[in-house]
Amino acid sequence: MIRLHDNLSSGNGYKVRLLLAQLGIPFERVEYDIDEGQTRRPDFLKKVNSNGRVPVLETEDGEFLPESNAILFYLAEGTPYLPDEQLGRAMVLRWMFFEQYSHEPNIATPRFWITHHVEMTEGRRAELETKRKLGYDALEVMERYLRNSEFFVGDRYSVADVALYAYTHVAEEGGFDLARFPSINAWLGRVATQPGHVPIT
Amino acid sequence: MIRLHDNLSSGNGYKVRLLLAQLGIPFERVEYDIDEGQTRRPDFLKKVNSNGRVPVLETEDGEFLPESNAILFYLAEGTPYLPDEQLGRAMVLRWMFFEQYSHEPNIATPRFWITHHVEMTEGRRAELETKRKLGYDALEVMERYLRNSEFFVGDRYSVADVALYAYTHVAEEGGFDLARFPSINAWLGRVATQPGHVPIT
């Protein structure tokens, strides 16, 4: 059986749990306490992920695949959650790289700092200000795109939507005001009513 | 003809130029002065990339594909630069997401600040310290992996290597000392001697 090395509060982990639920794939979950540094221990670094992060998918053959969006792409190949054509697949990746570079570091990290009660040093406060601005920039990019599209690629639900939904729908836990983004809110509603949808915890 | 919206000093742009050269695909290059904010102008945001960044690949059909690693994946499908099997492709993506999340923001950004003479405010100095530590962490992950592997996926040169080579081989321009990473240096040499290799500028 597939095994997911995971943390329940992680939006990156949630991406994978959501897709596995929608694909109807049974899996075993291994929970790590990230506040306790359980993903930075020598045995984890050696065996599961040298980069010290979850989620990591462990295949039935015992291969370890880190990086939430790589896992989504892997599981979605050959299913309706990933386009058949080459440019469509690349457009899914375009939004996934946007998510990991422009969105997640600015929207997920403030949520992590707040919900995990991380000490707000002076350096972190300066960083938070930068992240707040860049996070709103990323939401603005999504809002403008969604004004004319139901979903991010080919006007149908795909793993691009799964990747962007994970941290957007809990962005308010990181102090972002989503009320000013009507197209994002409508899209969040469409994603949440897809067959097989499950909540983050 | 394919058109690449680009900036010559960008490692992300270089990834695409390098792969296009190795694939023998002719292309037209459109240069943007990023110091002058040419990728943040309304016409660029509207037509080329709403996220205000290069590189962007413009296909012969006039479609615009942003995100360097999405472009690499798109161009490499069906060529020797991307594995045939599903898990191999996912492992390429794993290293590409590692590159954009854990490597590029910490290794490319200090290089940009230094080579583009960006003003070092107090906030930026605090950020630089964080990035220095995280950048070395990313190089350490690469070093450990390369101790037992010639290349990042399946022991053959792929777009995972292209993605990671771009900013690693100029990391010293951002103040990183590569002398302490013998396995990375050996790998840089293997990448630089691949058929069709071209330098960054």
Describe what this molecule looks like in 3D.
- With 201 residues, chain A is α+β, with helices and mostly antiparallel strands.
- The first copy, chain A, folds into 2 domains: 2-76, Glutaredoxin, CATH 3.40.30; 86-192, Glutathione S-transferase Yfyf (Class Pi), Chain A, domain 2 (Up-down Bundle).
- Helix content of chain A is 52%, strand content 8%.
- Chain A has helices at 11-23, 42-47, 68-76, 86-115, 122-146, 159-168, 182-192; strands at 2-6, 27-31, 56-58, 64-66.
- Chain A has a 4-stranded mixed β-sheet with strand order 2-1-3-4, covered by helices on one side.
- In chain A, strand 3 and strand 4 form a beta hairpin.
- In chain A, helix 1 packs parallel to helix 3 (68-76) and helix 5 (122-146) packs across helix 7 (182-192).
- The longest helix of chain A is centred in the middle third of the chain and has 30 residues, at 86-115.
- Chain A is globular, with a radius of gyration of 17 Å.
- The interface between A and B is large, with 38 and 38 residues.
